[in-house]
């Protein structure tokens, strides 16, 4: 029988299917790509936005990137069904353009609810875009990949763990090696368990903020 988190996540996904908050994306998408996997996951992975294959199939990270991601997970003893995978945006931007700040803000409540429902131990951000957005700073992925840092999502604290985007690793062999090494460190991080949660009502830690022209700012967490 489905637990409460999975039922709520399913209801959220149904809501997203009818979402037209981003008029251009709603008009050009084939379908909404909400998530895959289980809400019981200790590991949540967040990418940027669906691409052409994802838009066609309705599942995040399919095609070559998805195959690589599944292989990386298999390398640490996990299947796609045992983790939770989603994107910052649930609809494909036309021609794979970058998500716009207003679209990110529109879609942020979905992502926030997903994180709260899954309550993972580790959130892996896949690539520069998702990493900068969730960290709310401009630090490049090359400087922080494979380095876990405590991060607050509302009242919940998780390990935020940035890695290269699988698509970027497919283009550059050295990135693929780094991606494999970073994934190999995940089991230890997961085994350490959930980080100590801050007390309810405690002041929210300040995130680093990008200067003008940097990462789109959003009230995500
Ligand atoms: S990207 Fe998110 S907010 Fe925008 S239309 Fe799609 S589901 Fe709605």
Describe the protein:
Helices cover 42% and strands 13% of the residues. With 221 residues, the protein is of the alpha/beta class. The chain has a single domain, classed as Uracil-DNA Glycosylase, subunit E. The protein is globular, with a radius of gyration of 16 Å. It starts with a helix and ends in a 30-residue tail after the last helix. The structure holds iron/sulfur cluster. Residues 16, 19-22, 25-26, 32, 89-91, 103, 106-107, 110 line the site of iron/sulfur cluster (SF4).
State the gist of this model.
The protein has 221 residues and is α/β, with parallel strands linked by helices. The protein has helices at residues 4-17, 23-28, 52-57, 63-75, 101-118, 128-135, 141-144, 166-171, 173-184, 186-191; strands at 36-37, 43-47, 84-87, 122-126, 149-153, 156-163.
Count of spatially separate domains: 1
Bound molecules: iron/sulfur cluster
The first-level CATH class is given as Alpha Beta
Tell me the β content.
5-15%
Count of individual beta strands: 6
Spatial strand arrangement across the major sheet? 1-3-2-4-6-5
CATH architecture type: 3-Layer(aba) Sandwich
Mean residue pLDDT: 89
Overall 3D form:
globular
CATH level 4 superfamily: Uracil-DNA glycosylase-like domain
For the biggest sheet, the summary is: 6 strands, mixed
End-to-end Cα distance, whole Å, is: 31 Å
Annotated CATH topology: Uracil-DNA Glycosylase, subunit E
Helix content bin: 40-55%
Instruction: Identify the quaternary structure here.
Output: single chain
Please tally the helical runs, counting DSSP H or I stretches of 4 or more residues: 10
